[in-house]
């Protein structure tokens, strides 16, 4: 941040910065022990302002999440917020600045101007894209840590809602973090606070899932060394907020990685509450996308793989076709494919089945005959889906770990494929 005369007066945590010297931010002494700091400078919608930083503050120092060191809202010298308002007409004038592009009902109302405020965040974990990790194991290990980070955010009461390739980062250097743990609320089992037996049953289910998850984490040797994070809480929402205005929230995500259910909303008007199930499905599409777009295999892919890569960005039907094709890869057919796909196809087959069954969880609530379930019941169901999804993913990691770890690093093979010496 190098804007001259920038006065920092609010939300300064934890370093109590008072002033950012122009052009010298990276020299700020509070951060001298970090090899690199990342400045995220964003204009945030007013309804979202503060959510990302609040969420990141709550999960600070935990495994699998971005490390937020400080944040603030820069103010102009007159104390006003740094906002997009200066570019926008005031409310009385907005009619004259609005013209309809299409003659549809949807555009009959002049929308309110969207005002955004500037927020600066200082992040302390430098990462890089999954498309350049150098082994299949590192890819799956990164997804595992990011998924645990996602569950940590969830336990703190936030749904991430934008699990995408840009928002999962492998860390340049592993970082020492607090071990993943499950909050007491989810391990309590049936609470005395509710008399609804159905809710109590779900609470018992959540406890079971959480306990199994803890055992798996122990078995997998996941301790406090964090190798990857889920980043960008810009679209996160408080879980409780989701229940306040059910069905009214704008669906969120990055198109290529959004769940089928969310994408279908574009085609139909059926109601769908974006839930943990949608985020979990996004982890699958991110992984598949990475397999088809990993940079080490550029120029080495078969024609079919190139087509798969393109199809992943072209809607539900073509994307599902790719998942099914990978699902169908037998040992005999897999040998014709590039290494990253050979290494991963067994895992992806199980992962696809997992996602296909998790998708049904919200429908099961309806089929259980609870057409008008209580908010408390649905919220506990959400918790059970979140824990079940991560627990089952870790079970797959456990099942495939030895095979994934035994896959050779990419570099040598990729270079050899490109006709260069690898010695
Ligand atoms: N700590 C980091 N280390 C390395 N790269 C980072 C880091 N944080 C963010 N980036 C890069 O910057 C991009 C944008 O960051 P981020 O996703 O937090 O912001 P955003 O404004 O919400 O972006 P988008 O709308 O594209 O998701 C990321 O996709 C990633 O490539
Ligand atoms: Mg992002």
TrEMBL record:
InterPro entries: Kinase-like_dom_sf (IPR011009), Pkinase_fungal (IPR040976). It comes from the Eukaryota. Residues 33-290 form the Fungal-type protein kinase domain. PANTHER family: FUNK1 11, FUNK1 6. This is Fungal-type protein kinase domain-containing protein. Gene3D superfamilies: Transferase(Phosphotransferase) domain 1 (1.10.510.10).
């Amino acid at each position: 941040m190098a804007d001259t005369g920038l006065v920092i007066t609010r939300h300064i945590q934890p370093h109590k910065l008072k002033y950012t010297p122009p052009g010298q931010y990276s020299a700020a002494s509070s951060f001298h022990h970090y090899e690199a700091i990342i400045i995220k400078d964003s204009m945030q919608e007013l309804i979202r302002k503060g959510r990302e930083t609040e969420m990141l503050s709550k999960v600070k120092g935990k495994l699998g999440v971005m490390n937020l060191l400080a944040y603030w809202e820069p103010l102009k010298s007159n104390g006003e917020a740094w906002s997009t308002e200066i570019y926008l007409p005031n409310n009385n004038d907005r009619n004259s600045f609005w013209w309809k592009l299409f003659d549809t009902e949807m555009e009959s109302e002049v929308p309110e101007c969207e005002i955004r405020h500037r927020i600066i965040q200082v992040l302390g974990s430098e990462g890089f894209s999954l498309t350049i990790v150098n082994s299949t194991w590192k890819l799956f290990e990164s997804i595992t840590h990011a998924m645990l980070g996602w569950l940590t955010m969830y336990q703190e009461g936030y749904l991430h809602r934008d699990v995408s390739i840009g928002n999962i980062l492998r860390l340049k250097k592993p970082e020492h973090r607090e071990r993943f743990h499950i909050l007491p609320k989810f391990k309590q089992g049936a609470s005395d606070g509710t008399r609804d037996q159905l809710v109590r049953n779900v609470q018992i289910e959540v406890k079971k899932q959480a306990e199994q998850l803890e055992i798996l984490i122990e078995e997998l040797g996941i301790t406090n060394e964090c190798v990857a994070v889920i980043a960008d809480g810009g679209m996160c929402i408080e879980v409780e907020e989701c229940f306040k205005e059910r069905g009214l929230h704008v669906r969120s995500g990055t198109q290529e990685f959004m769940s089928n259910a969310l994408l279908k909303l574009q085609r139909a008007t059926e109601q769908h509450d974006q839930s943990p199930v949608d985020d979990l499905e996004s982890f699958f599409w991110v992984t598949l996308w990475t397999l088809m777009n990993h940079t080490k295999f550029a120029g080495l892919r078969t024609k079919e793989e190139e087509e798969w890569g393109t199809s992943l960005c072209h809607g539900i039907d073509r994307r599902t076709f790719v998942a099914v094709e990978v699902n169908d890869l037998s040992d005999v057919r897999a040998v014709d494919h590039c290494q990253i796909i050979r290494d991963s196809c067994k895992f992806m087959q199980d992962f696809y089945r997992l996602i296909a069954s998790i998708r049904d969880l919200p429908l099961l609530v309806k089929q259980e005959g609870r057409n008008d379930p209580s908010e408390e019941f649905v919220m506990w169901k959400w918790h059970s889906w979140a824990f079940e999804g991560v627990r089952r993913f870790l079970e797959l990691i456990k099942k495939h770990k030895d095979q994934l770890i035994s896959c050779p690093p990419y570099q040598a093979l990729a270079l050899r494929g490109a006709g260069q010496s690898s010695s």
